[in-house]
Automatic annotation (TrEMBL):
Residues covered by the Prephenate/arogenate dehydrogenase domain: 1-277
Comp. bias regions, Basic and acidic residues: 306-324
Record region (Disordered): 301-366
Protein's name in the database: Prephenate/arogenate dehydrogenase domain-containing protein
GO terms, molecular function: NAD+ binding; prephenate dehydrogenase (NAD+) activity; prephenate dehydrogenase (NADP+) activity
NADP as UniProt keyword: no
Residue stretches of biased makeup (Low complexity): 354-366
Entry keyword set: Oxidoreductase
InterPro entries attached to this UniProt entry: 6-PGluconate_DH-like_C_sf (IPR008927), NAD(P)-bd_dom_sf (IPR036291), Preph/Arog_dehydrog (IPR050812), Prephen_DH (IPR003099)
GO BP field: tyrosine biosynthetic process
Keyword Oxidoreductase: yes
Length: 503
């Protein structure tokens, strides 16, 4: 992010942008910025601190205390100091402990990665210590980013980032670890291809193509994030157990799983399930599945529309598969309609009860149904934690959170899709092995975070990263294009919303 900031400020015409890295990288940095207008490379943080009126520490949260302790005392008289850490509690403590009393603290945090355009993205500004004029100056300096300012306190920042990023990161990290443990790229086998699977695959690869410390700081140093990651693993485990019990059990067991999913939908999405006419008025977050298919790394399978009770004809890369990977016939695509119990509480998971079921046919889909356990667990964990994801959507949502919320919204607000997902979760066996790997991965990441060890986190992240490394170049281009398309439609959606409110 430091490089992104330096580049944007240089392009805006600032004449003296002092930069530094660790001393061993000084010569390399000099070569890198030799022809960049306005960028002046310094040997260390002391030189930057003595010369600058506005100083940004673009340092990992793990190392912010050490960096400010070393260079903070050299801060220029009445300078403004900010930090780009993803977790602000350690940054706040370091600034208060080591910066001179005359220093103003007006911190910032761009809620997106360095490869995403900052235009219209949220940029958090935190005036912690200093006069209003200090905040005004920071606003003027960063105005060239064309980002959208969001004003918060240090405490609010950490709560909002936990609510918008912790569970999202846990989901993608777990999916990646599961695929790496299984030693296969699912999109190359035609199984998880097309529609919302496109977003899940691209965003998982995007996370693993970034540096591990981008996610480690939030997960380990933010107490709220640790609680949420633990709940995500718990939700995934409990849902998987209910899937197994329902698939091999009684009608009551199947009912228990469906009720748990419906409970989460009611808590998180409530009455947001819209009719076709209402959908026409309100644009959803997610791009259409047809648009998402343009960004798929794999080729979508051909699904035979003549659904029968005993088998489902699906061609994967020319292979006619009438059986799952476990060798069992594919289940029926007919499923049972589910209606939530009247009078049930919205505050706790519903009790297990039996009620009459009405047969209903799910319309054919060109995408092979699966359990979508990662999405079911995400919504379930939000429900247990009483998190309303829409609260922070317009305020401070990252592109990743916005897109994954859109994926969940698309599944849970489409009765046919959700019904196909729960039916597949209970009756299909071809994805059971993948779901098991996912649960193990989710629990593993939760344990890793609870160890509070950056080294353990780094090793776990890097092992998975190595498995996908050969695919990063293609995935990065496709993922960036997908996010760009999403953000363009989001800007249009927000403008349309404002116009309708005016009318």
């Amino acid at each position: 992010m430091g490089r992104m900031y330096a580049s944007l400020l240089s392009n805006a015409g600032w004449k003296k942008i002092y930069v530094c890295d660790i001393p061993s990288k000084y010569n390399h940095l000099c070569l890198e910025y030799a022809n960049t207008p306005g960028v002046l490379v310094c040997p260390d943080g002391h030189a930057v601190s003595r010369a600058s009126d506005f100083i940004i520490y673009s340092v990992e949260a793990e190392h912010i205390d050490k960096a400010v302790k070393e260079y903070g005392p050299s801060t220029k008289h009445c300078a403004i100091v900010a930090g780009q850490t993803s977790v602000k509690a350690p940054e706040q403590a370091a600034f208060e402990n080591y910066l001179p009393e005359d220093t103003h603290i007006v911190s910032c945090h761009s809620l997106h990665g360095p490869t995403v355009s900052p235009i219209d993205q949220p940029l958090v500004l935190i005036r912690h210590r200093g006069p209003p004029e200090a905040l005004t100056l920071v606003e003027s300096i960063l105005r060239c980013f064309r980002s959208r300012y969001v004003y918060m306190s240090y405490r609010d920042h950490d709560l909002v980032t936990a609510n918008t990023q912790a569970v999202t990161h846990a989901a993608f990290l777990s999916m990646g670890s599961a695929w790496a443990s299984a030693r296969w790229y699912p999109w190359e086998h035609g199984l998880y291809v097309g529609g919302i699977e496109t977003a899940k695959v691209n965003l998982t690869l995007r996370i693993y193509s970034n540096a591990w410390h981008v996610y480690a700081g939030l997960a380990i140093l933010n107490p709220s994030a640790r609680v949420q990651i633990d709940q995500y693993a718990k939700s995934a485990t409990e849902l998987f157990k209910l899937m197994l019990a329902g698939g091999n059990g009684t009608d009551e067991d199947k009912r228990a799983f469906r009720q748990r999913v419906e409970w989460g939908r009611q808590i998180v999405f409530g009455d947001r399930v819209l009719s076709d006419s209402e959908k026409a008025k309100r644009r959803p977050i997610l791009l259409s599945e047809d648009v998402l298919d343009r960004f798929s790394l794999g080729k979508a399978p051909q699904v035979d529309s003549s659904h029968t009770r005993g088998a489902q004809d699906i061609k994967f890369n020319g292979y006619d598969e009438r059986h799952s990977r476990s060798g069992r016939p594919s289940p029926a695509t007919n499923s049972t309609a589910y209606a939530p119990e009247s009078g049930s509480s919205n505050n706790d998971p519903p009790p297990v009860t039996i009620s009459p079921r009405t047969p209903s046919t799910v319309p054919p889909t060109r995408y092979r149904p699966n359990s979508h356990l990662s999405l079911l667990a995400m919504v379930d964990s939000w429900a247990h934690l009483k998190i309303n994801p829409y609260t922070h959507l317009a305020l401070a949502a990252t592109p990743l959170f916005r897109l994954f919320l859109g994926v969940a919204e698309h599944l849970f607000m489409s009765p046919n899709l959700l019904q196909a997902s729960t039916h597949s979760a209970l009756h299909d066996t071809w994805h059971r092995g993948d779901d098991l790997e996912f649960v193990i991965a989710a629990r593993g990441w939760s344990q890793c975070v609870n160890f509070e060890s950056f080294e353990v986190y780094r090793k776990r992240f890097q092992e998975t990263r190595m498995f996908f490394e050969a695919r990063f170049e293609e995935a990065s281009k496709v993922g960036s294009a997908m996010i760009k398309a999403l953000m363009e439609t989001e800007i249009e959606r927000e403008k349309g919303k404002e116009d309708s409110e005016k009318d």
